[in-house]
Amino acid sequence: MSETPHTPDSPAASPAPHPAAPPTPPPVTQRERSAILGSLAAGVVPSIGLHHIQVGRKDEINALLGDVQRIEQDAAAVRVVVGQYGSGKTFFLNLLRAVALERRLVVAQADITTERRLQGTTGYARALYAELMRNLATRARPDGGGLANLVERWIGDLAYEITAAGGTDEDVAKQAHDRLAPLQDLVAGYDFAHVVTQYYKGHAAHDQAMCENAIRWLRAEYSTKTEAREDLGVRTIIDDASMYDYLKLMAAFARVAGYRGLLVLVDELAVLSHRLNNKTARDRNYEAILRIVNDCLQGSVQGLGFVFAATDECLEDKRRGLYSYPALAQRLQRNRFATDDLVDLGGPVVTLKSLTEEECFVMLTNIRRVHAGGRPPAEVLPDEAIVAYLQDCNRRMGAKSFQTPRETVRDFVGLLSILEQNPGADWRRILGTITTSQAAPDPATAGPGVDEEDAPFEADAGGDGGVQQGGGVQGGAATPAPPPSGPAGDDDLASFKL
To answer: pTM here?
Structure first.
């Protein structure tokens, strides 16, 4: 018996299903396009639109997402993100900031400078706290300036809840006092709760000056206790010694206000190791970091997380870095069993891996799509041009083009800008004119060390407390790195300085 042939309509003759098309990337707004291209051209990280260009670092992101989840569950977390200059530490912090805001966390972010530190006796620590509060961001205020919105929203929601049930202003004030009662168990919690209550009294009486004074106090903008007592009736202010205690209070208040916790992002930690010449000043700041690390690892705080960004030299230099403080070196010690193949992201230190060639290609195609502004990206620059550009970067800079892609990205944005403003230009001819430029000194470590708080200039034991020389900007360590094996190239000779 002959078999019945399959007809085109029979199931056996149906064609195989086509693979699913890749998801369409989200559109880029004009504001995001301007911020991304302008920031990358200047060698800095954009504050918005990071999801349009982000690639790689999946394991590191997942590790810190676990920290965010622990903060949501009233636990604590602390991390030190380590990478070379230009490796993407600030980009990583900003990406984590965007994720934390989506998870209903309050985020405070600031950079360490010589005048804003974790510890000081002349207002340096208070200045860092004030900067964190000025940059306080919520989901409703992602660009910063969210402290007043945080307090006002909580007061407004509470007043609506009580008055809708038939309560009076006195009932609202009593309820606010009761809900702030857990804060009084913390150090300086009574004054913190009193100032928030004063904000409600000004809100109820339409006293704008009272509300502004309360926000000024919460931002650490009062410099004398006398002025604070006259305006708000409190006898304390936020000063250098109490800065960390008030961060814990702000984390507790964020949970009372309906958020899931507070995440503090501190960048440019290398300033402490490279620009503070006095060893005593450095050790005091390292002791402040040690206190934070101990509290977070031991579970002494709730709903609070810290992420610091540092360089390899800032962490591992045993003369000036974090490892120069023995107790801190013990807490931040890497897992000795971890290797390039066996990665451990469970400890406090997270080292950013270098981007692969494929990830760099994807990153540049994302930047090309942002630059296209809705046009077909291939019309701006073909894929073969991106491949040729990466090959040229590898020829000029070697592995550095993938380890620290800042210069690679900056030159690529410049190439796109040239092609946009000169429609008849040939990208092949332009690539032949690119030379490796000497990177500008990083502001975190460039120039002489500064220590306004202690002696004008005292060399540390061992003679490492002097002026930071230009050749140490990228190296960072007190001792020079060994020269690479093989014959020295032109780039090695060009970067050499006495």
So the answer is: 0.79
